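Review form for a predicted model. The reviewer records the input and the model, then writes brief findings.
Reviewer: anonymous (R2)
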Amino acid sequence: MRLTLLASLALAAPCLAQVSTAPQEGLRDETPRLHVLRGADVVPEPGKRIAGGVVVVRDGRIAAVGGSDLETPTARGNGICPAR
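Model under review:
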């Protein structure tokens, strides 16, 4: 009985091991730092709406908001927001 219990515990030990959740180094090195969202309905402040606007996000922060005539830099992370 004890031998069976010890054998079961020995076989189950690898299943109970912790799995690492640490991010891998270098995995996000090529993440775009500049995103341009075009064709969005933008509400920059209450009561003001820009239909078909453009939002520029640089380093995770909103850098510019404007109409379709807003001059935008070339970005790898371009997104088009479809109209509803």
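Findings: The two ends are 68 Å apart (CA to CA).
Further findings: The mean pLDDT is 75.
Recommendation: see findings above.
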